[in-house]
Design goal:
By secondary structure, the protein is mainly alpha-helical. The chain has a domain of 238 residues. 48% of the residues lie in helices and 9% in strands. The protein is built from 21 helices and 12 strands. The strands form 5 sheets. The chain has a 3-stranded antiparallel beta sheet, sandwiched between helices. The chain has a 3-stranded antiparallel beta sheet with strand order 8-9-12. β10 and β11 form a beta hairpin. The longest helix is centred in the N-terminal third of the chain and has 45 residues.
């Protein structure tokens, strides 16, 4: 393992004559590193992976299919699938469900005799009326709810303030995060901002997933929101459960993409309500204060506390987007909270020896508090089952990453024996983890239709040999395919697209295993040319006007997102990627050493006090302009 700050003795990887490096355009330093270590990573100038690979091919260099490029294409594919099912099906489903819940809530309002229940029903009319108004601009709310809907919509459309919701009231447990909802979250992002229709869905889904029917605790002691949640449960169970099924066919596929913070769902509230009130409870039952307090106490036992966001607990109508690693960052700090968070913490937790080495060099484990907290979180991963690792996109993505960062596989080619290789794989894992910080519908592209990974039989590529990684990516897609098929979100043609891409990933897995089993590593990519048409089609359907959305205004794939925000100190950890770097490897073939070239992610991170120094919203442009430095451990394995 590379020890930062220490001199490294470079020993040639093979005694065979070095291949011709003149066409690569490398500096003398980079050429020496490539010759001695067997691989080199240099900064790239291309906007994205297709452009980077096109430049490599133009130099007459055969392609090195990196794990990074497989992650890149998979992310594009997942993004395009989401935009398509939203545009074609989920939009109408959510609009229909919103309209029906407005109708049922209106009936509850007219039938309720208790003033508290009646007020809760009125607020539900407004709550679902906001969602319906965002999806259907021609909807006109009822007179007794129009003022609430209008005020809420003005906050959402303005999207520049933090304020108590006119309908749902205060949110935080205390004054640390400030009162109320942060309406800046309602600005559509990525491809969702390129289409009015997708932008409407983004706002409606954000409304339904962020606003909690909060339990009375902390500063908020009002029980109205809890009664609203129970009225929602009654509405979903009405009419033979038709609206519950429709809700499930929206929430379940979306929850694969968003994950969720573990907040109670309407199904959880149904089960608890059946225990407290009995099945088929009525409007009159909701006016019993003793039963209501018993229900609140029962929910309070399993509703998770939100340490990082300071939000109150309670049912969310749709699953929110929340990352479990944020709670791990809360638990990790050592004595006096002086330890800085970084992607290294996350990668070390899931098994990266390279990340752990860097943390040890920084004396992080000398802090007994940090060491204990780290060990407790790390140990919790040991109890995870395969089902836990594959339950949603976040965990499935992390599961694939772990196959990369734990070290090179046995019988790996000589260039993977270099001390810096595991650190370079660590960077890939950190960048892949950072990608999850982009919202759903996040992919960026140039708008061109160049294949993201060029495969050719005349110039066979070499596949970076991590077979378990490609297997886990394939399983991710198979799980999503089956879930979408179950919810009638795929037709035969799109089901076939999933299968085509899964076959390609299976080919990468097979070729990787062959490369690890044979002494002659040359020609390991033969046969991938059969997938050229598939990759070109995937690229054409993904990069550009996916689901009617316009191509990204920026030609670069650079982005930055918040990995962690400490509301008590104002500290923000920002992670991101920039232009792809170039990687060249020397493969020892029977005919002699041969150079292959590919593209890898460029990883960035920074930590600063929120509101001071660099503004995180400007950071993507700073990355694109090469105005920010890489982490020190990343710079250690790179050459200029």
């Amino acid at each position: 393992m590379l020890l930062l700050g220490c001199p490294v003795l470079l020993v040639p990887v093979a005694a065979a004559a070095a291949p011709d490096l003149s066409s690569l355009g490398l500096s003398l330093e980079a050429e020496q590193t490539l010759t001695v270590s067997g691989f080199v990573v240099v900064p790239g100038e291309a906007a994205d992976f297709p452009e980077a690979y096109a430049g490599i091919t133009e130099r007459g260099v055969p392609s090195f299919i990196t794990t990074d490029s497989a992650l890149y294409v998979t992310d594009l594919f997942l993004d395009r699938v989401l935009l398509t099912i939203v545009d074609e099906t989920l939009y109408e489903r959510l609009e229909t469900l919103s309209r029906e819940l407005v109708r049922v809530s209106t009936d509850q309002y007219l039938l309720a005799s208790d003033s508290a229940v009646k007020e809760a029903a009125r607020r539900n009319i407004a709550y679902y009326g906001v969602g319906l108004s965002l999806l259907d601009p021609d909807y006109y709310p009822a007179d007794f709810a129009i003022s609430l809907v209008t005020r809420e919509l003005s906050f959402i459309e303005d999207a520049r303030r933090k304020a108590p919701s006119p309908i749902m009231g205060d949110a935080p447990l205390d004054g640390i995060a400030g009162p109320g909802e942060d309406y800046t979250y309602y600005v559509p992002r990525a491809h969702f901002e390129g289409s009015e229709r997708l932008g409407r869905f983004y706002r409606a889904f954000t409304w339904y997933s962020r606003m909690a029917f909060v339990l009375p605790e902390g500063r908020v002691q009002d029980m109205t929101a809890t009664i609203q949640a129970l009225l929602t449960v009654m509405a979903l169970e009405s009419e033979a459960g038709d609206w519950l099924e429709l809700w499930y066919r929206i929430d379940d596929p979306m929850s694969f993409y968003t994950g969720g913070a573990g907040d109670p769902t309407p199904v959880d509230y149904m089960a608890t309500a059946d225990e407290i009130y009995g099945t088929g409870f009525s409007l009159d039952d909701l006016s019993d204060p003793d039963l209501l307090l018993e229900f609140i106490a029962a929910v309070g036992e399993y509703a998770p506390a939100h340490f990082e966001t300071h939000q109150l607990r309670g049912m969310r109508f749709l699953s929110p987007s929340e990352f479990p690693d944020r709670s791990w960052f809360v638990r990790l700090p050592g004595r006096n909270d002086v330890a800085h968070r970084s992607a290294l913490d996350m990668m070390a937790l899931v098994g990266s020896r390279a990340a752990r080495t860097v943390l040890e060099e920084r004396d992080r484990f000398d802090d007994s508090s940090f060491h204990r907290n780290f060990w407790e979180i790390e140990r919790s991963f040991e109890t995870l089952t395969y089902g836990d690792w594959t339950e949603d996109l976040y965990w499935s993505w992390l599961y694939a990453i772990t196959a990369l960062i734990k070290g090179s596989p046995k019988s790996a080619p000589s260039f993977m024996d270099a001390s810096q290789w595991d650190t370079r794989a660590l960077s890939t894992g950190a960048a892949a983890w950072a990608i999850q910080r982009l919202p759903a519908g996040r992919a960026r592209g140039t708008g061109t239709y160049a294949p993201p990974i060029p495969v050719s039989e005349t110039m066979p590529p070499y596949v970076e040999p991590y077979p378990d990684f490609y297997m886990r990516l394939r399983e991710l897609l198979e799980n999503l395919r089956d879930r979408l098929w179950e919810h009638y979100l795929l037709d035969d043609a799109r089901y076939a697209e999933f299968n085509e891409y899964c076959i390609f990933l299976t080919s990468l897995e097979r070729i990787s295993r062959q490369a690890l089993e044979t002494e002659d590593l040359g020609g390991a990519g033969r046969g991938l040319g059969n997938h050229a048409a598939t990759l070109a089609q995937l690229s054409a359907r993904t990069v550009g006007d996916a689901a009617g959305a316009e191509a990204s205004a920026s030609p670069s794939m650079a982005f930055a997102g918040i990995a962690y925000r400490d509301f008590s100190t104002g500290t923000v950890l920002e992670v991101g990627i920039g232009k792809p770097d170039l990687i060249y490897v020397i493969v020892q073939e029977a005919a002699g050493p041969k150079v292959y070239g590919g593209a890898v992610f460029s990883f960035y991170e920074n930590e600063w006090a929120d509101g001071s120094g660099l503004l995180f919203r400007q950071w993507p442009q700073l990355i694109e302009d090469d105005s920010v430095a890489r982490p020190r451990w990343v710079r250690a394995y790179m050459s200029e």
